[in-house]
Amino acid sequence: xxxxxxxxxxxxxxSLSPNLPTQKTQGGAASLRSFDLAxxxxxxxxxxxxxxxxxxxxxxxxxxxPLGGGTMxxxxxxxxxxxxxxxxxxxxxxxxxxxxxxxxxxxxRGEVDDVRAGLDWLRKEFGKPIVAAGFSFGAxxxxxxxxxxxxxxxxxxxxxxxxAGGRDYTYPxxxxxxxxxxxxSGDQDQYxxxxxxxxxxxxxxxxxRLELIAGADHFFVGQLPAMQxxxxxxxxxxxxxxxxxxSQDISGKPEGLELERSAR
Length: 264
Description:
CATH superfamily: Alpha/Beta hydrolase fold, catalytic domain
Largest sheet: 9 strands, mixed
Number of domains: 1
């Protein structure tokens, strides 16, 4: 997959280190934890937005192409996190191998095992069912890892690419994905022409949903609230127990020390 498919660069003004202590809310509850995952090629830099103790699900979010500037602080990933965390669910993000402070070297295939490392950590830490998501390259890597994982109960693929760098991308492993799936893209996505995207999504078994945001490109520029709204609707309809949780702010306003700025 072409690195050029992911151009959004984000940074954190707080310069979080991998060993930063847990951040606290005014009420004293933990909200943001920075730590290392044990990955197949060494440590993986990670962030956990901690949720409510009685949350019915936990979430793993995967970022876009590292060679295009993708990190766990990507703007689309951050805004998706706000939706999941707004339900009270714990949300794990991490940097793929060779990205940020994560060890190893990007190779475009081994990142599937990085996703599995994140899934394993969530399993051991919470022992709850997982609803995962990814953006662009992260959607491709995440789906491939999650389709064979019995603990994953749903996946939201944001901006799944079907054509980038002069290559077409197909996803034959989708045929084995039995859990609910959301394919959420802009109808002007330069890396997923709608006819191609429909062919890919139609190859996946039910339950599945393809939702196109009118006028949105690959990066949902100017359409992040619409992306959040569509993701939130799918979560509420697909996982009804999430409606019993206290709804929190899902705007792009950073919380705690996690201050993220977009270069785009």
